[in-house]
Amino acid sequence: MELSVLFFMSSGLFLGWSLGANDAANIFGTAVGTRMIKFTTAALICSIFVLLGAVISGAGAAHTLSKLGDINALGGAFVAAFAAAAVVAWLTILGLPVSTTQAIVGAIIGWNFFTGMATDFSVFKTIVGTWFLSPVLTAIFSYFMYKGVMWWLNQQKFHLISLDAFTRYALLFAGVLGAYSLGANNIANVMGVFIGANPFGDVGFLSGLQILFAVGSIAIAAGVYTYGKRVMMTVGDSIAPLTPVGAVVVVLSTSLVLFLFASEDLEYFLASLGLPTIPLVPVSSSQAVVGGVIGIGLIKNASNIRWGVTGRIVVAWVQTPIVSAIASFFMLFLIQNVFAITVFQSVEFEVSQPLLERHAKHLDVKSLQSLIGKKYSTSGALKNEVDTLLPHAEYKPELRFVQDAKIEEITVDPSRFPELEKGGLLTRPQIDAVRALAGKTFKYRWQLVDAMAQNSETWRMKERTVLNKPYNKEVDHRLEIVLDLYTAKMK
Amino acid sequence: MNTANLSLFGKTKALEHKVDEFLDVLSECNIFFKAAITYFLEAGGNGAAAFQQKVKEVNSKESHADSLRRDIETELYEQALIPDFRGDILSLLEDLDNLINLFEENLINFSIENPQFPAENHKELKMLCEQVALCVESCVMSTRAFFRDIKAVRDHSHKVMLYEKEADKICIALKTAIFKSDLPLDQKSHLRNFVDKIDQLANEAEDVCDFLAIYTIKRAA
């Protein structure tokens, strides 16, 4: 095992620790804050189910690339993960619930700025959207749900002790599910970037990847145990006084908002029944849970809500991606110039005739003819040129054009074909389509994808509709498997 | 083998049963007290076997109530149940236990001191015991409602206030009658103590309901 890999991985573990210390509050904050579940019990359950979620479902998915995977050097990923983790850790120590994902996105933007890569600024729109939509939607849901639940409980006339037991079991059940999905959905963000440099081999029935993810979930568990309580108490006790029934309602309304407004499965289900779909909006559980508590606080009396604490939380949300980006930028500068560690692999971008033809539909490519043959060392430099030539170009197609210009020189190495057949993740026609390209080299990534699609319709995307979404997503996942095999691993 | 621990809600049901049983004991003490005073007045003072039987029964009920209360409190704290109302329930149980102690104390005093109520005061004394019994019973109903049907607490608490006022009126009338009589002052004073002590039961029941009203506001919030 290389020592440097272990060193790089340490920032992933730090990120895991921060995630555990902060995000456990989304799941158990209200339960611990209302003293319905002891912190030690919550921490134990959280740790066990985060581990199970990470090992069973996190590693089981074909597509385990993390958000940090956009970064192309292990040193850069190390710094970005460290910056995001440091920001979340700082806010955790202050007891403020923030989104770890938004910290990571901020850190990646810092890397983009440092390396001169073009940034998709629409990600900011998404993040700002979550600051408003998540708490407002959850507050509305928890407000009405609490009223409904209280009415129902008055009709049922449960004994106070029975009601206590029901509430406790409901909180435990929700906590178990929440911890499992926290592990399954976030482990890739913590350890995914180190998959390419995984130092662990298979042991017994556990794959090396599962062991890597298990190590990451132990870091998450350590975060929950050491600093989880502080953020939990902010969510469950400091924003507004909560009753145990209120605690359950907050957890339920948070899950419901995430399910209704962020679930592609539900969108597909409604579309398949011919029903109108609920528009998918950006929502984050860290922000939703705070809205849920405020919603219940509003029922009793708005003066019960500690607006000072709420204000500090909102400021922390805004700080998270911005401070992460700044911290990542300066740390990259320091690491590269003081410690001489590679934080990005040099890449080249080149405009060619096939590339212009590919984007002729959405961009005025005639104006870009002068760029043919020119090479750029960063996507930012190419984007600046395009901006000069096409000042009114739409942002998204322009960004796609710039990303497609990246030279990768992918050679389809026949010796790696057996790896494609491993795990039975690809169908026979899909494997045959790749085999037919043996020995060929493609300048751009999209050229390989196009060639595969030409060889077999199983590699072709269908029209972009809600009903076709799962199919296209599946094709996309399988494409990642092939591309992961033939494109350079992070070093 | 204790099967209660095997089912998911076994412990919960067992604890609920204990709370109900505690309230049953209070209700039974209330009935026994009224019966004991009737026996005392009608069957010739503290020597009446039926009276002594009731004293014994209340005594044994009081011990049982104590042990139930301790069990409930221990379980509530050991298992960290009902965190938001645990303190309130603890106070409530202590207050209700005081009522049981007061029943026992009253009967023991009757048994030891054998107060000699003139025959013309018997009717009013029985009326006082009747009002006290109604008051305590409404208090028990109010407490049961606090655990199961929060909206009904007010209905029962309202009756407690009413019965307590009636008990006070009878108490004053009885004490006035005693002090207007030709009995020696020491006996008047002796009887007054007993009348006050019986009326204290209604006052304590009212105090319990006052606290219950606050706990209910908290619970309904």
Please outline what is shown here.
Chain A has 491 residues and is mainly alpha-helical.
Structure write-up:
- The complex is a heterodimer of chains A (491) and B (221).
- Chain A has 491 residues and is an all-alpha fold.
- Chain A folds into three domains: 3-338, no CATH class; 348-407; 410-486, no CATH class.
- Chain A has helices at 3-33, 39-58, 74-93, 100-115, 122-156, 160-191, 208-238, 244-262, 264-272, 285-300, 307-338, 353-358, 379-389, 395-404, 417-421, 428-435, 445-455, 469-486, and strands at residues 348-350, 375-376, 406-407, 410-411, 441-442.
- In chain A, helix 3 (74-93) packs antiparallel against helix 11 and helix 6 packs across helix 8.
- The mean pLDDT of chain A is 86.
- The model of chain B is unreliable at 1-6 (pLDDT under 50).
- In chain B, helix 1 (10-42) packs parallel to helix 3 (86-113) and helix 4 runs antiparallel to helix 5.
- Chain B is 84% helix and 0% strand.
Descriptors:
heterodimer; A: 491 residues; mainly alpha; 3 domains; 3-stranded antiparallel sheet; two-stranded antiparallel sheet; 18 helices; 67% helix; B: 221 residues; Methane Monooxygenase Hydroxylase, Chain G, domain 1; 0% strand; globular; disordered N terminus
Q: Distance between the terminal alpha carbons of chain B, to the nearest Å? A: 41 Å
Taking Cα atoms only, what radius of gyration of chain B do you get, to the nearest Å?
19 Å
Assign an overall shape of chain A: globular
Count of separate DSSP helical elements of chain B: 6
What is the CATH architecture annotation of chain B?
Answer: Up-down Bundle
From the N-terminal CA to the C-terminal CA of chain A, the straight-line distance is: 15 Å
- Say how many strands of chain B there are: 0
CATH homologous superfamily descriptor of chain B: Phosphate transport system protein phou homolog 2, domain 2
Q: Which geometry of chain B do the CA atoms define?
A: globular
Greatest interface: A-B, 17 and 22 residues
Task: Classify the secondary structure makeup of chain B into a structural class.
Answer: mainly alpha
Percentage of residues in DSSP E strands of chain B: under 5%
Q: Would you state the CATH class of chain B?
A: Mainly Alpha
Q: What's the story with the biggest beta sheet of chain B?
A: none
Ranges of chain A where pLDDT stays below 50 over 5 or more residues in a row are: none
CATH topology of chain B, by name, is Methane Monooxygenase Hydroxylase, Chain G, domain 1
Please report the total strand number of chain A as a whole number. Answer: 5
Q: What is the ordering of alpha helices and beta strands of chain B?
A: HHHHHH
The portion of residues forming beta strands of chain A comes to: under 5%
